[in-house]
Amino acid sequence: MISSLVMLDNEAESDDQPLVEYWVIAFIKPRRDKRYFTYRQFLAKGYYEAFDIVMTFAEKTSNEILWFKEKRNCGKEFQGKVIPNLESICTFCNKEFNYNEPIKCNFKGRSSTMCSSEFCSLKCKEEHFYFKHVRQGR
Ligand SMILES: [Zn+2]
Ligand SMILES: [Zn+2]
Hints:
Blueprint: E1 20-30, E2 35-45, H1 46-60, E3 64-70, H2 76-79, E4 88-89, E5 96-97, E6 103-104, E7 118-119, H3 122-135
Antiparallel strand pairs: 1-2, 1-3, 4-5, 6-7
Residues 90, 92-93, 95, 119-121, 124 line the site of one zinc ion.
C-alpha cells in the first residue's frame, strides 16, 4: 500500500547511463499493536530501476512506503549506517526473505571476528549455531 509516497527531486539526469548505487527505502510495517518504522537498502541503476524495485516490494508486502532515495543523498547520518538489504538471503536455508528483520548470529569465536551470518528465523539461527559454532568448535 502506498499512501503518501513522496517523489523526491533527483539531481538533474545527464545523458550518461545512471550508475549502480545504493538506495534507501523508508517504510512503516503495520503490527498488531504499533507501527514500526524501518529502513532497507538496495542496489539499483538509476531512478526508474529503483522505482520498480520499490513498487514490487510494496506489492509483495503490506508495508507503507514513506520515501526512497539515493543513499548518498540521505544525509550524513546514513553514510556510515548499517542498513539491512531489502532482499536478504538466509545463511542457513538460503531462502530469500525481506519481510522479517534479519536475525544476526553475531557469535564471537576465538578468532574474535564476529560471525556476520543472517537468518530468516530463530530456528535457522539455532541450527547454524550448532553446526558452525558448537560442533566444529570441539
Ligand atoms: Zn532460514
Ligand atoms: Zn554464526
